[in-house]
Amino acid sequence: MADFSQIALDPSADAPIYKQLADGIRSLVDSGIIQSGEKLPATRELAGRLGLNRTTVSAAYAVLEHSGILEGHVGRGSFIAKLAKTDHPETTDWDSLLPPLESAVPAAPNVQISFASSRPAQRSFPLAQFRRLTKEVIDSPEAAQILQLGSPHGYPPLRRFLFEQATASGLARPTDDLIITNGCQQALDLLARLFFSENRGGNNGVVLEDPVYHGLVRVFSRAGANILSIPVDAAGLDPALLEEVLQQYRPRLLVVTPSFQNPTGATLSLDRRKRIVELAQRYSVVLVENDIYSELRYQGPSLPTLKELDESGNTILLRSYSKVSFPGLRVGWVIAPRPVIAHLAEAKQLSDLHSDQLSQAVLLRFAESGELTRHLERTRTAGADRLTCVLEACARFLPAGSRFTRPTGGMSLWVELPAPLLADSLLRRASERGVDFLPGRYFSARRPHTHGLRLSFGGLTPDEILRGLEILGESARAELASFANVAPLEPVAALV
Amino acid sequence: MADFSQIALDPSADAPIYKQLADGIRSLVDSGIIQSGEKLPATRELAGRLGLNRTTVSAAYAVLEHSGILEGHVGRGSFIAKLAKTDHPETTDWDSLLPPLESAVPAAPNVQISFASSRPAQRSFPLAQFRRLTKEVIDSPEAAQILQLGSPHGYPPLRRFLFEQATASGLARPTDDLIITNGCQQALDLLARLFFSENRGGNNGVVLEDPVYHGLVRVFSRAGANILSIPVDAAGLDPALLEEVLQQYRPRLLVVTPSFQNPTGATLSLDRRKRIVELAQRYSVVLVENDIYSELRYQGPSLPTLKELDESGNTILLRSYSKVSFPGLRVGWVIAPRPVIAHLAEAKQLSDLHSDQLSQAVLLRFAESGELTRHLERTRTAGADRLTCVLEACARFLPAGSRFTRPTGGMSLWVELPAPLLADSLLRRASERGVDFLPGRYFSARRPHTHGLRLSFGGLTPDEILRGLEILGESARAELASFANVAPLEPVAALV
Fold it and tell me: What is the predicted ipTM?
């Protein structure tokens, strides 16, 4: 009988074990070590020999049966087939039935220092507190209610808590209501569907910042909206340019991230905020405030939200626990006038009935216990160090002629490379040396941003930031040297 | 100073406490007990007096400030205003901006026995096991990974487990892949978007059973699909009628619930299953199998899924843990050919990035530990008792001329009342006596079902089922007596 122990099984590989096992048996057949007509060991026996679960072996055998390599005979066992069957010919042509896939962000191989992901560092999670508070939640008498079917508006105790907190702080008005969503992404998706997909005709424009988080652009373009864009500089959206667009196109929706915008890190001044709110009212555009980073301020005083400045009460405010606590628990919320929330609740119910209640209950306990505030304080302290470090490293290592934003919070900053440097060529060179980032084209509302790139520093240590930017700088200089005319060395200018 | 303790605060009321407090203070002002210009106690003081949280009092004061009843003066305190401000005039006319709301199912007041909800009984949840296994999950080294941003395909260990299980049991083929969704509702929504919203033009028909779960109809009509319907009898979808519709309309999608269909409880025979799979292949319609109840079989042998019978490998299979474990944890999944899953993953990422990972990890532990199987066995034992009871009670109490289905599993059965009895009139009468159900119109794909109704027995005790049906029978007879010609008493026929 063949020696199955020579099949390499790697639990840390991407492919599941049963598939590795099936592939291994297939190789043994291909190489003639197992012959046609030979009987394979019973699943229980092979599982025992290889130290695997029996279902894993059954799954491997099933794969081999389906691909015609193995034949099962009830009561007799599994045998290697005489001839491999060909694939069934009647397979649907899915490509002709389905819309084309957008290309996803490719993962670079062997990246050691990644400026690409704007997620918090896993090592900074307050795991001990999470464990203690989750145990309190599941041991509480509310556990049964948490496990029962819930409301599309969200887990009632969390919804009440968030609305009382928002009302007490002046964020919510008596004419407002609140719904809990699976993070802000779902809030944006539900809004896009409400204002565009299900509501076609008329002016179907949405105004977005440019560059901007690509998930936001795609949500609105998928919903059939006409994407209008306003360039963002280091001070954020320019109200003068906004007014021109509002005047000319009379769009239906305006989405603004006033604090630590993704990807630029830009924050709108109080004056710009007031002006944007005024413009939204004057041109009757529905203002959506994407306010998911404002609690991650590391320097300077807080600014009021657009929602607070908007006396009309019409602003739709999006917030989330994902960026300030645990991104794997998908809990965000929307505060908006009651009719908007009623419509969102209807759309939410059709989309997925309601958000998961266990995470909602855990995050409520986190907020009520004060642990969220303490975690935020620690996050802000660490974030301030990272921010200082990344700004210093940008000034020190980026090639002459580069410009970069100087955010006072959040997780990202934006770099404009000097011509002829392109973000994509820099990425190719840097990723060979184990450093990556997202090039500007991933943040395009309408403009290409070929010289722009986002550096996300939220999940890195100061050492990683320094080393990463050193490599970026070296890669940029190597790339520049490959051109005929190398740019003269000049001090780096901050994009302010 | 006014006596605030006379304000009635009811923690079990629907309105949150801060709102009850604000309303109470407003009444004290309206009735002259608190006068214009009078100073209210500081929030901390009033909170202490009423035994409330200080943020609750702040929220109540904020509500009163926003509605112009209270004026806050920094450093001096809060005073009752001289004149109430009028509402701000610039409020957006949301009704003109947003599509009309569909009417939701109204909650009947004072219902003691509800046949309306097809959710499991809360008392049957295996809480001790949930607590033990959740603690294992959160104490495990995987906790940090669970809390980090995840994959649109789902929590990798759960996805792997489900796919290996499905492969071993012959449900999944090597050409298939799997994605985890927020229950089956999201799977249906993503499929509707993929095949209709984002893919307009051509034949845009979807074939649904009628009567059928309303959330399914609405998902597809919202996506712009043309709803085609096939009547369901006690044996389920009739393949002969299906063929006529497929021939005439050449629809794009066919959605079938082969086992214990909601609302009829009907199960397709093996012959009908084979025939439906053949027809789907012959007419090149994409077959979606909504298989969320099949594990709730109380009598008779299991039948293969359409997915297993479909040699072409094209069937899209939907499954869920929600109906067989905890509905409050939103975890379902789709098994389908790889190109379909790739598209669903793209749509899922735009919709909400990924499903909540804590619940996925908890349900994985539930399944792996064998607790899910044990819970299912207990659920089936209790379900068999309920089913016997509800069938006996229907035969005994429903008025002569009624017909009802005889499911062998699931949570619901379907009753057709004899003319002139209407489901809505019966509901009005029965709900006055504390019993409710969902009338047929809530399950309309195209037909009105005015004489039909769904009885969901999954969450009731045998005693409640008996008492509830006794009241339904009495209400039906009272309603019939209100007509001129009372139907003669005849034995009740089962709809088989």
Answer: 0.81
